[in-house]
């Protein structure tokens, strides 16, 4: 079975570590990025494609919405599944992110099971992983 | 005619519920909020994390706690021993907690507004704007450490009156 690759994009190193623990335990090979531009550079230089990006909204340099727009404008990344993971909980913000090309939206704070449920909905993990400890 | 939407500022009970939800998601041990009570002063150096909300309602959310409590928060989030955590990581962790509480408050306020990136300092007075007033606060205890969470409203001409109606 091939590896599945995730990139976690968040300006908080604590949040990056929390998400890394969760998605690593779900079977992903995880790359970390501090903001959207950092993520684009790491995607450009990686020797593999990414299956999913977990994206914070409010970040310096390039925010999550700008990152989603950049990824959607680049046909090389058309297969990357984009999931916003953010404190932005207003319906209007969710609509903006989904209209820009996000596939899923998860509001912070979240639980490990909530992350797993979203990734299962996206077809990236099997339901059996929901019972995995984090 | 444009309809003005009044901000729905949280009560101290609602702010306490937001805090408890953030704590229980990422930190070990229950945080016990005591709405309406004054927080006992932190017995060591303070750490203060804040995020600003700017838009149709303007203010900021502030978390004040002792440095040892902030180190324990970071230890939980990074899953490392407190003495292995750098000052930058402590600031990052408590800043992210403020970001999540502030984001939830912004969602509850229900007006068009933007959330700033977190600021973390060692002295609360550095973050208190003279034009701001505290509108709600929660004192809490977590693992024996006092934590105060407060929401401040900035008095901006044309905005403060609307905000007061909704408080």
Plain-language structure description:
The complex is a heterodimer of chains A (about 130) and B (about 170). Chain A is an alpha/beta fold. Chain A has five helices and five strands, in the order βαβαβαβαβα. A five-stranded parallel sheet of chain A has the order 2-1-3-4-5, sandwiched between helices. In chain A, β1 (about 5-10), α1 and β2 form a beta-alpha-beta unit. In chain A, α2 packs parallel to α3. With about 170 residues, chain B is of the alpha+beta class. Chain B has helices spanning about 10-25, 65-80, 85-110, 160-165, and strands spanning about 30-35, 45-55, 60-65, 115, 120, 130-140, 145-155. In chain B, β6 (about 130-140) and β7 form a beta hairpin. In chain B, α1 packs across α3 and α2 packs across α3. The longest helix of chain B has 23 residues, at about 85-110. The chains are: A alpha/beta (about 130), B alpha+beta (about 170).
Largest sheet of chain B: 7 strands, antiparallel
Number of helical elements of chain B = 4
Total beta strand runs of chain A: 5
Report the C-alpha radius of gyration of chain B, rounded. Answer: 16 Å
The 3D shape of chain A can be described as globular
User: Given the C-alpha coordinates, what overall shape of chain B results?
Assistant: globular
Query: Level of helix content of chain B?
Result: 25-40%
Oligomer: heterodimer
**Radius of gyration of CA atoms of chain A, rounded to a whole number:** 14 Å
Q: pLDDT under 50 segments of chain B (min length 5)?
A: 158-167
Q: Main interface pair?
A: A-B, 21 and 25 residues
State the end-to-end CA separation of chain B: 24 Å
Helix content of chain A: 25-40%
Task: Give a count of the beta strands of chain B, DSSP E runs of length 2 or more.
Answer: 7
How would you summarize what this structure contains?
Chain A is an alpha/beta fold and about 130 residues long.
What is the element layout, followed by pairings?
The complex is a heterodimer of chains A (134) and B (167).
Chain A: E1 4-9, H1 13-25, E2 28-33, H2 36-45, E3 52-55, H3 64-72, E4 81-86, H4 91-100, E5 104-107, H5 112-121
Parallel strand pairs in A: 1-2, 1-3, 3-4, 4-5
Helix pairs in contact in A: 2-3
Chain B: H1 12-26, E1 31-35, E2 46-55, E3 59-66, H2 67-78, H3 87-109, E4 113-115, E5 119-121, E6 132-142, E7 145-154, H4 160-166
Antiparallel strand pairs in B: 1-6, 2-3, 2-4, 2-5, 3-7, 6-7
């Amino acid at each position: 079975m091939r590896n599945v690759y995730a990139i976690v994009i968040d300006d908080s190193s604590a949040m990056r570590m929390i998400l890394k623990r969760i998605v690593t335990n779900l079977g992903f090979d995880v790359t970390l990025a501090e903001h959207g531009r950092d993520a684009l550079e790491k995607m450009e230089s990686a020797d593999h494609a990414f299956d999913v990006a977990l994206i914070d909204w409010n970040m310096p340099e390039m925010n999550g919405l700008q990152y989603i727009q950049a990824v959607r404008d680049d046909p090389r990344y058309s297969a990357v599944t984009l999931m916003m993971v953010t404190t932005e909980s207003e319906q209007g913000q969710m609509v903006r992110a989904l209209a820009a090309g996000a596939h899923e939206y998860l509001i912070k704070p979240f639980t490990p099971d909530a992350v797993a449920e979203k990734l299962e909905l996206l077809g990236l993990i099997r339901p059996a992983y929901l019972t995995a400890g984090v | 005619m444009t309809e003005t939407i009044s901000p729905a500022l949280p009560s101290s009970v609602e702010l306490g519920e937001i805090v408890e939800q953030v704590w229980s998601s990422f930190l070990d041990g229950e945080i016990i909020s005591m709405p309406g009570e004054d927080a006992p002063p932190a017995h060591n150096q303070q750490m203060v994390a804040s995020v600003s909300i700017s838009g149709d309602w303007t203010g900021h959310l502030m978390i004040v706690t002792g440095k040892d409590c902030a180190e324990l928060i970071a230890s939980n989030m990074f899953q490392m021993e407190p003495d292995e955590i750098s000052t930058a990581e402590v600031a990052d962790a408590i800043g992210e907690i403020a970001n999540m509480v502030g984001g939830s408050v912004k969602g509850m306020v229900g007006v068009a507004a933007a959330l700033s990136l977190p600021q973390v300092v060692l002295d609360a007075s550095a973050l208190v704007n003279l034009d701001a007033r505290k509108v709600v606060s929660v004192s809490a205890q977590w693992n024996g450490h006092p934590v105060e969470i407060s929401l401040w409203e900035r008095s901006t001409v044309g905005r403060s009156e609307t905000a007061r109606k909704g408080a």
